[in-house]
Design goal:
Blueprint lengths: L2 H111 L10 H4 L8 H35 L1
């Protein structure tokens, strides 16, 4: 064997070894970059998944908020209607009170003309309790009761007056 050939072969083997070492270094660098890229890809996939879940959650809450807002709007509309109804009923009650007061004055005038003493005349306090906004619901049954009593007492007073007038005429 020739030393020159052997030397040449050893140099080739040495160069091949260097190239293999360089290749191994480059391969390890490539694998490190690939692992980083794979980790980034997994992270992006996880983020996209989480983003989709959060978006679905947001839509779910948006539907719930929309429903809550619809319920609030419906409740406000109902409340406005009830308040309007309450106001119109208060106006009706006020008109009826005025009518009853006029009738009370007229009735008392007739009772006076029929000879009923002033202390026995019908009074506003007997039949027309004051209604305040806060007490409307509490006073309304009282008003109905007073009006019923008014009608009953009026009938009794009227009968007493008629009987008294008839007896006075007979004597």
């Amino acid at each position: 064997m020739d030393y020159a050939n052997l030397s040449s072969e050893l140099i080739k083997i040495s160069l091949a070894r260097q190239k293999i070492d360089e290749f191994s270094v480059r391969l390890r660098e490539l694998l490190a970059v690939y692992e980083e890229a794979e980790a980034t890809r997994c992270f992006i996939a996880e983020c996209e998944k989480m983003s989709t879940e959060l978006d679905n959650e947001r839509k779910s809450h948006a539907d719930e908020l929309r429903q809550i807002n619809q319920d609030i709007n419906h409740l406000e509309d109902t409340l406005k209607g009830v308040k309007g109804n309450k106001d119109s009923k208060k106006e009706i009650i006020a008109r009826k009170y005025d009518e009853i007061e006029r009738e009370l004055r007229s009735t008392n005038q007739l009772l006076r003309e029929s000879g009923v003493p002033e202390e026995e005349l019908l009074s506003r306090e007997q039949f027309l309790p004051l209604i305040e906004d806060e007490l409307f619901s509490l006073c309304f049954p009282l008003i109905l009761h007073s009006v019923r009593n008014f009608a009953f007492n009026f009938e009794i007073k009227l009968n007493e007056t008629i009987i008294g007038t008839v007896i006075g005429v007979i004597r």
